Every structure is written in C-alpha cells, then in structure tokens.
C-alpha cells in the first residue's frame, strides 16, 4: 500500500507556502503522489501546476477536477499539458461534484451523473489518445451537427501513452462505474469494517468489463491526526465530518449522508444533518460519533497508526492519501513524518 498526500483545496485562511511545504515533505519521505481538490474556490490544475514547478519526483493528481466545470476536450487539454510539463507525473481524478455546486456555481443541470460521466471519460480518453474527435452521445455531441465545427485532434502529446483516470465515487452505482471504466477509485470515509460492501460494488464493475481485481487503484483519502490520545485526536476531524455528512448537498440529496446511513449510522447522520442545516454547526460537530471518526481516520501515536495502516491495507486500500490536521504547519509536517514511520513499521513501504 502506497502513501499519498491529499491537500484538499485552498481556503481563504490557507497559506499556499504551507501547502508547498507539505508536498515537499511528502516527496522527501517517498510518498507516491499528492492530490489537490477544487470546489468553488481554488481550481486544482493551477495549484498542481504550481506544485509541479517546485517538486521533481512525486506524482500529482487532481482530486478532483469537476466534470460540470469543463468540457471534456478542455479537461483533455489540461491533462495533456500537465502530464507533458511534469514528465509524466499527472493523474486525472474526475468527479461530478454535487447538485448545489453543479447547478448553483457552474450552471449545469445535475442530471444522469453516471451516464454523463461515462461519456465524459470516453471523450477525454479519445482526445488524449490523439484521435480525431467525433462523438455522438446522449449528453455530448462532437462536432455539433448543425454548425461549422469539424473533428479536431489534440495538437500536443502527453508524456505517457495513457494518463491514469480516477473517479471520485460515493454511491454504490458510481463505485461500480469506477470499477468498470477507471484506473483508480477515489474513496472517502473508507472504513475497514464497511470495505467488503464497497469492494463488492467495485468488483462487480470490474467483472462486467472483464477486468481483473488489480486493475483499479483503491485510493482512500484519510484524515490524519497524531498524538497520545486518539479521542482528542478526533476533535479536529469533526468539522470535516459534520460538513460532509450534514451539509454537503441538500436534505434530499447528500451522497455522504447516504454513505453514513449505509455504514450503520442512520440516526446519527439524520441528527448531524438536522443540526447542520439549522445553522447549529458546533452542535453538528459534537453529534459526530467518535467511532465514525476513528473508523475513517488515522488517529493516535506511531504504534496505533502502524496497526491502522495494516488494517487499511488488509481492507483493500492500495493507496492511502492522508490529510494531516493540526494547529500550525509544523504539527502537520510532523504528522507526515509519523505516518511515514508507521508505514515503514507496518512493512508496507
């Protein structure tokens, strides 16, 4: 199981120099890759290009580039450019985002997300293969049939013949789609105790496409907090869990809340959502069960992290992308040192 770093997205209070310092430390520790997200603030390609110019060996992944934000051809152009400029270090993570961001920020209807994703990946892969682009789908048609457009071909070539495509997937059918068409699955709130059900969906997609069980990189993003007291370590993660389970989407459509329900936290997920949507964010954080945070995070000292990393590997994770929490940059840098040592002790390096 490889180690990776997930920086998330820049928020207003972030110092970009701190993000760079974390990426540089991860590179020096031998982490396989660093991943960058986007929502409705910083975009992932800009941050990745900035990191690429100041690192040399670590892989660089978009976790994710939002499907409603760009045409498939624009995404292929960006992916090819990043891969070429980094000498083949780029991995393309894609996701449909959610209805609030898709419709409220990008002005794109959130309909048929699975079918739209399938067509989007088809077009991106064809463009990156430098095929003359012509596509007749339900959601995308290239060129438009009633205008002066003509089929075109990407004028640059990526550094690699095939750029890995990862899909962020939470719902069961979306996880199956990742197994069917993607090179990697970007998982969130991944708990070893619930892994069998999720992996069964992934394997179903792989089998439908005639792919082997090792054809998809299972990349789980895992909050990381180090310290002697695991329950105290859980506290910084509660805001993240409350935001996603309680407020990332509408009451009727929140994929993360649905996941928590499937994991056995139906009553807790309902309470967190009620509190969060009522504006009682601190109460929503307090309502997040410690067990949920512990099951989906890396909390504790080096010995406990060693045991938890081994559990994640046994539960099917092939890349563990840690997101370090803690006050101050030095605390988060030290957390990377600790998890790297735990990774070595677990025999996973």
Report what the structure shows.
The longest helix has 18 residues, at 230-247. β4, α3 and β5 form a beta-alpha-beta unit. α13 (302-314) crosses α14. The chain is built from 14 helices and twelve strands. The protein is 47% helix and 15% strand. An eight-stranded parallel barrel has the order 1-2-3-5-8-9-10-12, surrounded by seven helices. The radius of gyration is 20 Å and the shape is globular.
List the helices and strands and how they pair.
Elements: E1 2-6, H1 16-28, E2 33-36, H2 44-52, E3 59-62, E4 65-66, H3 72-85, E5 90-95, H4 99-104, H5 113-128, E6 135-136, E7 141-142, E8 165-168, H6 172-181, E9 184-188, H7 195-208, E10 217-226, H8 230-247, H9 255-262, H10 266-277, H11 281-287, H12 290-295, E11 298-300, H13 302-314, E12 319-324, H14 329-345
Q: SSE order, as H and E?
A: EHEHEEHEHHEEEHEHEHHHHHEHEH
Alpha-beta classification = alpha/beta
Major sheet: 8 strands, parallel, barrel
**Any idea what the shape is?**
globular
* Individual helix count: 14
Question: What is shown here, in short?
Answer:
The protein has 349 residues and is α/β, with parallel strands linked by helices. The protein contains 14 helices and twelve strands. The mean pLDDT is 96.
């Amino acid at each position: 199981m490889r180690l990776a770093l997930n920086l998330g997205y820049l928020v207003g209070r972030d110092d970009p120099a701190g993000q760079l310092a974390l990426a540089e430390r991860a590179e020096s520790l031998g982490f396989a890759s660093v991943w960058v997200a986007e929502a409705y603030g910083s975009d992932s390609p800009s941050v990745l290009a900035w990191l690429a110019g100041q690192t040399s060996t670590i892989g660089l992944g978009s976790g994710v580039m939002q499907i409603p934000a760009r045409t498939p051809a624009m995404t292929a152009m960006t992916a090819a450019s990043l891969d070429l400029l980094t000498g083949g270090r780029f991995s393309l993570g894609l996701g449909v985002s959610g209805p609030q961001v898709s419709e409220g920020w990008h002005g794109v209807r959130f309909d048929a997300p699975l079918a739209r994703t399938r067509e989007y990946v088809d077009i991106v892969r064809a463009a990156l293969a430098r095929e003359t682009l012509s596509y007749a789908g339900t959601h995308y048609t290239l060129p438009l049939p009633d205008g002066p457009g003509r089929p075109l071909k990407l004028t640059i070539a990526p550094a690699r013949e095939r750029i890995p495509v990862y899909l962020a997937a939470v719902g069961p059918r979306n996880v199956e789609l990742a197994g069917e068409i993607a090179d990697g699955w970007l998982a969130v709130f991944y708990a070893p105790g619930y892994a069998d059900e999720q992996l069964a969906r992934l394997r179903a997609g792989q089998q439908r496409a005639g792919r082997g069980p090792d054809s998809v990189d299972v990349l789980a993003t895992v909050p990381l907090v180090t310290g002697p007291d695991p329950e105290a370590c859980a506290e910084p993660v509660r805001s993240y869990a409350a935001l996603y389970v309680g407020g990332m989407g509408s009451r009727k459509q929140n994929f993360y809340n649905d996941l928590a329900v499937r994991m056995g936290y139906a009553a807790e997920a309902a309470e967190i959502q009620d509190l969060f949507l009522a504006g009682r964010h601190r109460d929503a954080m307090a309502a997040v069960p410690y067990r949920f945070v512990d099951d989906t995070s890396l909390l504790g000292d080096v010995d406990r992290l060693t045991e938890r990393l081994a559990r994640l590997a046994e539960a099917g994770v092939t890349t563990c992308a840690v997101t370090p929490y803690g006050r101050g940059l030095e605390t988060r840098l030290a957390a990377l040192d600790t998890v790297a040592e735990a990774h070595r002790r677990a025999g996973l390096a």
